[in-house]
Amino acid sequence: MDSSNNNLVEVWGDTVNFKSMLFAIVIGSVVSTGTFLLAKFFLSSSSGDTTLLNGYAMLIGLGGCLLSGFICSIMFKPARTVISSQEDNSDNVKAFIVDLIKDDPNYTSVNDLPSEVKEELNLLQLMTVFQEAEEIAKKKQ
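Given the sequence above, the corresponding structure tokens read:
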């Protein structure tokens, strides 16, 4: 593990930078609590039901939570690098199909399948894999 990975921790199944997470927690706490307290201060000068005014202050505080989430999303960009590779598994698929053909005495040919199934196999680019697997299975018999 290199030194850049030392700051990473796993939280709820996601890997995050510990330092960024701490800053985000502080920002979230300050902004949401500050918004709630400011709303409560300004609403307390209004006349009306105090329970209802506290509810409004809590609602505005929840808006502060959204605001802090927005601020953190701007400050802390995703640091992960997603690498996607597409492996060629056609040999494994062929071997699997050869085993299926050998194990199923009722299997005749991929050419005997209904046209809808053939179209789907073509869409999945598996028609030639099936045909090649049939040739391999015939040679092994």
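Helices lie at 18-44, 50-75, 90-103, 115-123, 127-140. Try to locate this feature in the token string yourself.
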